Amino acid sequence: MKLRRHKENPILKPRGDDWESIEVYNPAAIHIDGKIHLLYRATGEYVKYISRLGHAIFDENLNLVERSDTPCFTPDLELWEMSVEDARITPLEGRLYMTYVITPTPCPPYSVRRRLGMPPRPQARTRISLAEVTYESERLSFQRLGIITPYGSNQRDTVLFPDKIGGQYAALHRPSAWIGDGYPTERPGIWFAYLDGLPGRMYGHRLVMKPEQSWESWKVGAGPPPVKTDKGWLLIYHGVDENRVYRAGAALLDLEEPWKVIARSPHPILEPEEEYERIGDVPNVVFPEGAVTIGDELIVFYGGADVVCCAASVHLDEFVEHLLRAS
Ligand code: BMA
Questions:
Q1: Ligand 1 atom closest to Cα of 303?
Q2: Pairing of strands 139-147, 127-136
Q3: Cβ neighbours for 69, distance < 8 A, ≥ 6 positions apart
Q4: Residues 36, 28: contact at Cβ < 8 Å?
Q5: How do the pLDDT tens digits run along the chain, 327 residues long?
Q6: Considering only the top CATH level, what class is 4-326?
């Protein structure tokens, strides 16, 4: 079963001549008091390729209500954050937590470097940091809580579960360095871990999913935080193939032992088809990172071709039933 694209896609495009003038993509999403807040990755130049986070507010019909003129979250150079990328927001115990990627040596993607004749990408080991987000008097503020992923594991795509698992905080993460000899996967996969606190460190790692189908053979990574349903945790994830095409898939994970996969979509639930997904700074990319449930509808927010923000939706119960039948 496929997600249905929003008719007004893309819902956000680059604008101005500053920090968000070339790319606005891969948004986190959170639903607060009838409004949907997106925190999107924004870039304004290719040379340093620093990402910041922008903030846009939509109503429940996805009409844009407000878009901040300034970034809401910027790298803290004293913490060796040169670029902050690909946020996810999880409501947990009445608070909001954001996981985000820190890149020590930001660098444009291959297609842009080739176009601009730039030198090869420096070796970068990315890490995931955590922040608590507060929304008060229509303003977002952030308190940094520090790095949560294991040293040297080269991370992206890390999301907290919105509930404790077995009484412990828990996350899904994607350690790109944990492949090959000594690891249960040859290609980057989605792993489960507990956290010993917030802030805290990960422990008790278990592989949840590795690439299975040809459309996800290069790597897989979690998208938005898992959505709790009575059939299991619904995980929307991305899969990359040998030609670096990014598609979205879905899986259901056991509620108590989320490292156990109950169902998994054999086919993509969204793939690059529209021009804004096929043509951009990285062609052929749909990259889901945010999801909100409004009534029976699950709305998924994703980046298109590393340039724009988009939305697509599905009837949640029908989708879960279909996933159970199809796998
Ligand atoms: C990933 C991340 C994402 C990006 C995707 C496609 O590694 O950098 O932010 O959308 O590649 O380029």
A1: 10
A2: antiparallel
A3: none
A4: no
A5: 999 999 999 999 999 999 999 999 999 999 999 999 999 999 999 999 999 999 999 999 999 999 999 999 999 988 889 999 999 999 999 999 999 999 988 889 888 998 999 888 777 789 999 999 999 988 899 999 999 999 999 999 999 999 999 999 999 999 999 999 999 999 999 999 999 999 999 999 999 999 999 999 999 999 999 999 999 999 999 999 999 999 999 999 999 999 999 999 999 999 999 999 999 999 999 999 999 999 999 999 999 999 999 999 999 999 999 999 987
A6: mainly beta
Per the document, the length of the chain is 327
Of ligand 1's listed atoms, the one at least distance from the Cα of 281 is 12
Q: Which two tokens stand for residue 206?
A: 């278990």
Q: Model-level pTM?
A: 0.97
Residue whose Cα lies nearest atom 3 of ligand 1: it is 86
Q: Within its chain, how far is the Cα of 294 from the centroid?
A: 20
C-alpha dihedral, 126 to 217 to 10 to 16, nearest 10°? 30
The answer to whether 195 touches 180, Cβ cutoff 8 Å, is no
Q: What is the largest CA-CA distance in the chain?
A: 52
For ligand 1, atom 7, name the residue with the nearest CA: 156
CA nearest to 191, candidates 162, 215, 170, 167: 170
Residues at CB less than 6 angstroms from ligand 1: 26, 85-86, 109, 156, 246, 282, 285, 287, 303, 306
Residue nearest to atom 9 of ligand 1 (CA): 86
CB 23 within 8 A of CB 281: yes
* DSSP output for 137-152: TTEEEEEEEEE-SPTT
Strand, helix or coil at 76? coil
The structural domains of the chain, with segments of one domain joined by +, span: 4-326
